[in-house]
Specification:
The chain is α+β, with helices and mostly antiparallel strands. It is built from 21 helices and 24 strands. The strands form six sheets. It has an eight-stranded mixed β-sheet. A five-stranded mixed β-sheet has the order 9-10-13-11-12, with helices on both faces. The longest helix is centred in the first third of the chain and has 18 residues, at 162-179. The chain is elongated and about 95 Å long.
Length: 587
């Protein structure tokens, strides 16, 4: 007797539901997508107990007639695809015809819908039609889901707490509202309104409605395009970073997606503007030809494949970097102090922890630290070449003191500024090192006493395999005995007195990064590592003249706002803020 039998349709739908319906937010996502596809201008989501007890979605879309309402709950029934070629031109959020039958197979469903004529009402229990009748003619659709997973207890017990399910639902609706600012969204839980947008079509206004003034006021508009992609959206200034990627919202052709390559491009654009463990708030809309993307690779349709990803990567990085370059990114100290967001406290804590390693317990020493000012000819060349951060480069900062041997106090006609001298010189040294590493003609100097470095057999072979990289950087070295190199000269930008330590750091970076060796990132890692060593430490007093040189060089940097590790270098107290703090201004 044959062991293979065709699976019962109800059982197949339950299995399919395991892929499409993972949690309450999955149902909200699928129902809201259907409402958007129905061209609704107003969508309301009502939850009971975070969606565990009930989910109801009401829209004013084009609705369904009696026949379509019956067919909508049959598996693979769809109004969006009719032939094979349609897969290459998908311009709707749903298209498989799996969501409604999958949801209906594991819950109680009631549907009331109308195209504006006679309405239709139906009830489905566990995928089986229980009631079907005419209803009122309100145009649009009302669909309600009750008793989720009542017939699949194994799935029911894996639902999370009410708070977790509610948080996921709110997160999904927020992203849909940002993807479709022209739609008026309302979200309620147990009668309490949690989210309400105006449907104005203004993306910046929608960001304000969701995130509030403190975030929306720190967003920078971006817009760019090439032959294949159109970009539009907003990116945040580096002062309002988050501790996870949930707020990096990417919308491709109206679909909210998660894509590692796009996230990597955004993070690379913020390189040295933020710590590696923090992430920006980004709302990015990408429009492209449907033939360049494949949305049919994941049951939830949240991940996509993008053709010409290298072209999109370059466009994203260039656009975001230019937006950051062209804006004055000095954070306002009063806004920072008045913001009680716990994520920002985490940023403060991490900075304090990192600063703790730099503070020295030894007695304070007055010094005229050599900041290595550039020749006047180079300064004149730089003035002619300046094209980024014009506002910062026009700032005239006058140092008036030094607090705790760490923070330079400076002023101008706009207010008072605090500058972290270590972070500031890290940025200056980083950009100098990067410039030196890009130079084709490398200046070198001979060592009076050659430096001998012995490695393990494996590390020796890794360095030997990439020795041309070291030669191009300006190092002259030879093999000396077993697993040993002797260095006889080095590039002039190495810190005097720390040559051996610097060479060892460079070799460590080379040895650790040879899996998929990237020369550009290798150079950046060297510049970051050595810039910290070459910089003034905290609790080290420097002269007034050295402070002036430091401020002038910081203002001339391409990115003067953050050290290479992403920590801020400068914070501002405006005159108005100071007057309010001292009650000179009462409004």
């Amino acid at each position: 007797m044959s062991k293979i039998r065709v699976m019962d349709e109800q059982l197949a739908n339950k299995i399919a539901a395991g892929e499409v319906v993972e949690k309450c937010a999955s149902i909200v996502k699928e129902l809201v997508e259907n409402s958007v596809d129905a061209k609704a201008s107003e969508i309301s989501v009502y939850l009971l107990e975070g969606g565990i007890k009930e989910i109801s979605v009401i829209d004013n879309g084009h609705g369904m007639d009696e026949e379509d309402a019956r067919l909508a709950f049959q598996r693979h029934a769809t109004s969006k695809l009719y032939q094979d070629d349609d897969l290459f031109f998908i311009d709707t959020l749903g298209f498989r015809g799996e969501a409604l039958p999958s949801i209906a197979s594991v819950s109680y469903v009631t549907l009331k819908t109308s195209t504006g004529d006679v309405g239709t009402f139906l009830e489905i229990e566990g995928g089986k039609l229980k009631n079907f009748e005419n209803a009122d003619a309100r145009k649009g659709t009302i669909i309600t889901i009750n008793h989720l997973f009542y017939n699949t207890p194994a799935r029911l017990k894996y639902l999370k707490s009410e708070q977790s399910e509610l948080a996921n639902c709110v997160s999904f609706v927020e992203k849909f509202a940002l993807a479709h600012p022209e739609v008026r969204f309302t979200l309620q839980n147990d009668g309490r309104v949690l989210l309400k947008t105006s449907g104005s079509g203004n993306l910046h206004k929608t960001i304000h409605e969701i995130y509030g003034m403190q975030v929306s006021s720190k967003m920078i508009e971006i817009k760019n395009s090439n032959d294949d992609f159109d970009l539009y959206g907003y990116v945040c200034k580096p002062e309002i970073l988050k501790s996870n990627r949930n707020h990096m919202i990417v919308i491709v052709n109206g679909r909210v997606i998660r894509n590692q390559d796009i996230n990597r491009a955004i993070n690379d654009a913020y390189y040295t503007y933020k710590p590696d463990i923090k992430y920006p708030i980004v709302v990015l809309k990408i429009d492209t030809d449907p033939t360049l993307i494949d949305v049919n690779i994941h049951p939830t349709k949240q991940d996509i494949k993008i053709n010409k990803m290298n072209v999109l990567y370059e466009l994203l990085v260039t656009t975001i970097k230019e937006a950051l370059y062209q804006n004055l990114l000095i954070p306002n100290a009063v806004e920072r102090m008045s913001n009680f967001n716990p994520i920002k406290q985490e940023i403060i804590d991490s900075v304090v922890a990192e600063r703790g390693e730099e503070y020295q317990t030894s007695k304070q020493v007055q010094t005229t630290f050599d900041l290595g000012g550039e020749p006047k000819e180079e300064e004149e060349e730089r003035k002619d070449a300046v094209i980024v951060n014009p506002e910062m480069k026009q700032l005239k900062l006058y140092p008036v003191g030094l607090a705790h041997g760490t923070y330079i106090i400076a002023e101008n006609e706009d207010g008072v500024f605090l500058i972290d001298q270590h972070a500031a010189q890290e940025r200056i040294n980083y950009e100098k090192n990067m410039k030196a590493l890009r130079e084709k003609q490398v200046s070198t100097t001979n060592l009076l006493f050659p430096i001998t470095i012995e490695l393990s057999q494996g590390d020796f072979l890794k360095v030997k395999n990439q020795e041309q990289v070291l030669l191009d950087m300006g190092f002259h070295f030879e093999e000396f005995g077993i697993n040993t190199f002797v260095f006889k000269s080095h590039p002039t930008w190495l810190l005097e007195g720390h040559e051996e330590e610097s060479i060892r750091r460079i070799l460590d970076l080379m040895i650790g990064g040879l899996t998929g060796f990237d020369r550009v990132k290798f150079n950046e890692s060297i510049a970051i590592t050595l810039s910290c060593k070459m910089s003034i430490k905290a609790n080290m007093h420097i002269s007034h003249e050295a402070q002036e040189v430091l401020l002038d060089e910081l203002c001339a940097c391409d990115n003067p706002y953050n050290c290479p590790h992403g920590r801020p270098t400068i914070i501002k107290f405006s005159i108005y803020d100071l007057e309010r703090m001292f009650k000179r201004a009462m409004n």
